[in-house]
Amino acid sequence: MRRAGRLKSKVVATCMALSVLGASGVVLSAGAWATQTLSATTWVNVRSGPGSSYRVLGTLSPSQSVTSSSSQGGWYKVTTSAGLTGWVYKTYLKATGRSSGSSSRPASTAGASGSATVSSAVNVRTSPSTNSGVVGVAARGASIPLTGKTSGGWTEVVWQGANRWISSNYLTRGSASTSAVTGQVQTTASLYLRTGGSLSDAPDGLLPAKSVVDTTGRTTADYTEIVYKGANRWIATRYTTAVGSSGPAAPSAPQASGSVTVTVGSLYIRSTSAANGNVVATVYRGTTLQTTGVTSGDRLQVIYQGAARWVFQAYTSAGGGSASLVDGGSVTIPSGLTTSGISQLTSNAKAVFNRVVASYPQIRTIYGWRASSNWSSDHPNGRAVDVMIRNWSHQGSIDLGWQIANYFATNASSYNVSYIIYRQKQYNAAYPSRGWRAMEDRGSATENHYDHVHISVKP
Fold first, then answer.
1. What CATH number should be reported for the domain whose range is 183-242?
2. What is the mean pLDDT of residues 182-186?
3. CATH class of the domain defined by 17-95
4. What sign has the CA pseudo-torsion 121, 126, 129, 134?
């Protein structure tokens, strides 16, 4: 009877364990089970307790790995590799690996030579190529031992006892900050961390929206220096708000008085009217820019991404609204809409562009033709439109992106759509029954289409 009772207890325990396997694919139990490895399915807050009313301690990025061995009312207590411990709701987590200590690991063939910090969740690969196998995901904030070897933008690391490779763009190195902290700011959008105070300085990771970081008091015309993970980095000032302030840190955009269209293949946008002024961006033929009406010599003041900038006036033509297209058609470009490569689009792609402009006034940037593309020939052939999503990590912006993506999926035949990509998912119009399918990891938010909806059309 005692043996039968123990058997019955095991059956009951097994049923209880299975009951915690929800739609999200999370497998967790309290007590006897080993710690589980999980990853975030989107940007999500880590809270001080098991409920949405608790204080936010930090943020998990998409695919960031955490560990957990307990839950309470649908909330899981998780710990990041950087040591942050808090609570995340189960909907935003999925199981990604075996319990700790459950698998053997190949031995490293080289000793460690220093370490680096992972600036954003990134794939760990078997060799220095995006075509190589993925063996895991290094979480943002993780400290990774280095072997000292690099290869074409890749860094060899020691990962779980074996020599592996990570894109160098996602690793932060350098001396620790000695700067005194003078204040704090909160980001209003996801921002690139840069090694210096200008757009030309290399990006070194991504800082999520609503992050609160320490400042050093040093600024440039457009950037603020911060202390992030013990190192000095720079972020765009106009996307920050001083902590304790009710308004943005940067002044409002200047008033537009007209618009011009870029008439050359590419045109520098500079921070000042000087011929050698700092280049903050490059725009291309067909781009429409708002102007303030102010000139300085041969330079024209324009409004770019909400700030006053300067361009060489001879490379622009006055007027806005309607741009003549190569095949005789036309599109309406509203004032304030930033575009590039629209004049080289095919008629099918122009129909997509016109529908986005007419139906989604929230969209302020749309790109079309460009000379090259890493993944397909659609952009160079004028068959693709990129609908850029502002504040793309915010839920409202995510919903807007899906509204646009699903509209063109539903009406694919009317617009001759071939496929759509959004948030690392792809819809093939030739196989509508398959729906939205996961796409391979291409390494960054832009390449994975988190910040824009890509719509390709048939020839």
1. 2.30.30.40
2. 85
3. mainly beta
4. negative
Name the band, by pLDDT with cuts 50, 70 and 90, for residue 321.
very low
Closest residue by Cα to residue 190 from 453, 446, 455: 446
d(CA 151, CA 128): 7
Domain 115-172: give its CATH superfamily.
SH3 Domains (2.30.30.40)
Supply φ then ψ for residue 353, to 5 degrees. Answer: -55, -50
Q: What percent of the chain has pLDDT over 70?
A: 77
The domain segmentation of the chain, as residue ranges, is 17-95, 115-172, 183-242, 252-319, 320-459
The residue among 255, 190, 187 whose CA lies nearest residue 226 is: 187
CA-CA distances (angstroms) from residue 288 to 359, 416, 450?
19, 26, 24
Full-model pTM: 0.34
The residues with which 288 forms a beta bridge, in sequence order, are: 261
Strand partners, 144: 116
- Give the pair of three-digit tokens for residue 245: 């302030």
Q: How far apart are CA 426 and CA 194, in angstroms?
A: 31
For the record, the structure tokens of 423 come out as 């948030």
**Strands 93-95 and 36-40, sheet pairing:** antiparallel
Give residue 7's pLDDT band: very low, low, confident or very high (50, 70, 90). very low
Tokens 């060799």 belong to 127
Q: What per-residue confidence (pLDDT) applies to 366?
A: 92
Q: How far apart are CA 116 and CA 157, in angstroms?
A: 9
Q: What are the pLDDT digits (tens) for 115-133?
A: 777 766 778 888 888 778 8
Looking only at the bridges linking them, the beta strands covering 436-438 and 223-228 are unpaired
Stated as kind and residue range, the H or E segment containing 235 is: strand 231-236
| Gyration radius from the chain CA atoms | 25
CATH 2.30.30.40 fits 252-319, yes or no: yes
Question: In angstroms, how far is CA 372 from the centroid of its own chain?
Answer: 21
**Which residue, chain included where needed, has tokens 């609570």?**
87
Distance of alpha carbon 64 from alpha carbon 93, whole angstroms = 10
Q: For residues 236 and 225, give the distance between their C-alpha atoms in angstroms, rounded to a whole number.
A: 9
Q: Token pair of 417, please?
A: 């759509």
For the chain, the farthest-separated pair of C-alpha atoms sits apart, in whole angstroms, at 98
Give the number of residues written for the chain: 459
Fold agreement (17-95, 252-319) = yes
How large is the angle between the packed helices 395-410 and 347-359, nearest 10 degrees?
140
Fill in the DSSP letter of residue 173: -
Helix (H) or strand (E) holding 21: none
Q: List the structure tokens of 218.
A: 């040093």
| 3-class secondary structure, 139 | coil
Burial class (CB in 10 A: 0-12, 13-18, 19+), 182: exposed
Q: Count the alpha carbons within 13 Å of 353 in the hemisphere toward its beta carbon.
A: 32
d(CA 318, CA 115): 53
